[in-house]
Amino acid sequence: MTLLILALLVIIVLFGVKNIRMQFITRPIFSFFKKLLPPLSDTEKEAMEAGDVWWEGELFRGKPNWETLHSYGKPKLTNEEQDFIDNQVMTALTMIDDFDIVHNRKDLPPELWEYFKKEGFFSLIIPKQYGGKAFSAYANSTIVAKLASRSVSAAVTVMVPNSLGPGELLTHYGTQEQRENWLPKLASGEAVPCFALTGPEAGSDAGAIPDEGIVCRQEFEGEEVLGLKLNWDKRYITLAPVATVLGLAFQMRDPDGLLGDKEALGITCALIPTDHPGVKVGQRHNPLGMAFMNGTTYGEDVFIPLDWIIGGPQYAGRGWRMLVECLSAGRGISLPALATACGHTATKTTTAYSYVRHQFGLSIGQFEGVQEALARIVANTYQLEAARRLTTTGIDLKVKPSVVTAIAKYHMTEMSRDVLNDAMDIQSGKGIQLGPKNYLGHPYMANPISITVEGANILTRSLMIFGQGATRCHPYVLAEMETAAMEDSSAALERFDSLLLGHIGYGARNAFSSLFCALTGSRFNQSPVSGETQQYYKDMTRLSSGLAFVTDLAMLIMGGDLKRKEMLSARLGDVLSELYLGSATLKLFEDNGRQQDDLPAVRFVMATRLQKAAKALDGALRNFPNRPVAWIMRALIFPLGNHFNGPTDKMTTDLAKGMLQPGPARDRLTFLCPEFEGDKGGIAEVEDAFLAQFECRNTYKKIKKAQRAGTLPKKMANMALFEMALEVSIINKGEFEAIVNADKLRLIAIHVDEFETL
């Protein structure tokens, strides 16, 4: 006891007396911290500072305020947005024949191009004063998703002008003159934009752009002006083959000092008409057979005045930050919209197909193997819709959540891959035979495109989500890094002392919280709701504490080496991602009014999210290089083991069976794949067959009962069986006519396209 009291007194003196604390704790730790800091390149620093911290900050810090999540509100369409979707979007869907677009035309039909331009599909994000729609991110996402339910090529054509490109960059950073000149042309479709960022030597590492713009003087429109001589070679540029105006990212250099002392000014963005002398549009790419325009552009000694820099000369060298901040549109709106459309389409068609396709005398949806894959499709679709809504909510709140949009891009495009794989497994021959009736083939073929663009998924997971999130979301680390860079060492030490005390308290709280939650099953954690979902909030808080605790120790012990331990940082990023996705799921359940028929999907999704988050955290501990520290962390986070086991078989069958019937729950997960009059594609066929078969379900039961009783033969062609059932009065005339019609629709739905032998 005496030794314990002495130890406590030493701790109290060390931490309680400022002069002693500064001498023996703060100063040595500050010196160690400065050595530990990883060197940051200019592009890394700009990326770190770009964007805003949003809901992910709450999740990263170990004690999420769930009331904050609920306060964000439910995304809603304005009357104008809803009217556009009900009319212009639905009209556009009737004009789409995706098989003809992809396999015959290799392009959208001229009338669809003209309709998109005339009706403002390319002006969704442009302010109204320049002739644009100024629609919300949620509306933009909904429009792209509905188009994608019938044609990926049409959806990509619309989404590109409304994501990273001239329209968005001009809106945020353009000079007044640039806006007045270009935005009305972009809004009307007179100007078709593309943005050239990626080149042969710069893909995911966009900061390594080799293309250059050299400051020089040259004659332009009859007089000598200060400008840039540009040379570039770009590829994978969507809309480049048809673009009339080119957004270009390049490294700007001033070797002759015409603008000042600095030679390397950094990445800069400019806007150039494609008919400008020296600008060349190369040949077209073939992105997995899809028909959207994608190709190359290059230029040799192309001279432009400095005024063509987006934002004017004062924005020279600021292009990288502009791009990072504006990438949220592609990462948070467009690509997640494509992924969610895949989910809605797969859910609508696969639930219907599982009901109407019969094998071994049963609907295939009655087999547990099919139900297992079907439950994953439905659960992933619920998750996709939830993440789409929460992410666009953040963007519509005018924050620039760069970490959140990276999470959305990576996980949602990967989820769409899983959805399409499961849908293909269930629909099998129907899915692999291409033709006008095939609604899975083109999305399945195009899926790797979404996974590749806007930052390859492998690097997005391993470098961006945790690498940026750990520093931006931590309540102390970024401030400590800024303190370490201060020139006034005395002021820096004073500030660091204050931060250090807070940081120690923060770490101790998360360590204690992790242990207490594990030992008590999170029962004493706060939840903003009662009922069945309250435990999910409590478990998420527990895992949030664990993530914060492990992150703190990982950054302390590994320092700059952490960013090179990509597998470890990816696992920690996965924990954050799963918590974000779980948050989105719980918020969607609340936004939908806590519908009871949503609960099977919520149970399955949340069991999956918690299992994956805990598994990622467990994997990080298993692979943590400092084993003694790893043992301590495991003892605090999983003292009784990891018991997050994922969905049960009952959850799986309950979810699948509940979606094998028409109803509000199914409608909420298929509305982005709309029905419309005159739809001659396979989606309408399989849906019509499903509804007709479901209406006849009691008639089928009568026939099955008679077969079991021996009144009707067990094996007989359907038409003959129905006629016999009518003859022996098992069914009446009305039931006979309905079941015959339903069977005709069933045969139409399960048939595939045929072609003449080539």
TrEMBL record:
Keywords, sorted A to Z: FAD, Fatty acid metabolism, Flavoprotein, Lipid metabolism, Oxidoreductase
Pathway(s) per entry: Lipid metabolism; fatty acid beta-oxidation
Domain Acyl-CoA dehydrogenase/oxidase C-terminal stretches: 317-455
Enzyme Commission number: 1.3.8.7, 1.3.8.8
GO BP annotations, alphabetical order: fatty acid beta-oxidation using acyl-CoA dehydrogenase
Keyword Acyltransferase belongs to the record: no
Record-stated family: Belongs to the acyl-CoA dehydrogenase family.
Protein name per its UniProtKB record: Acyl-coenzyme A dehydrogenase
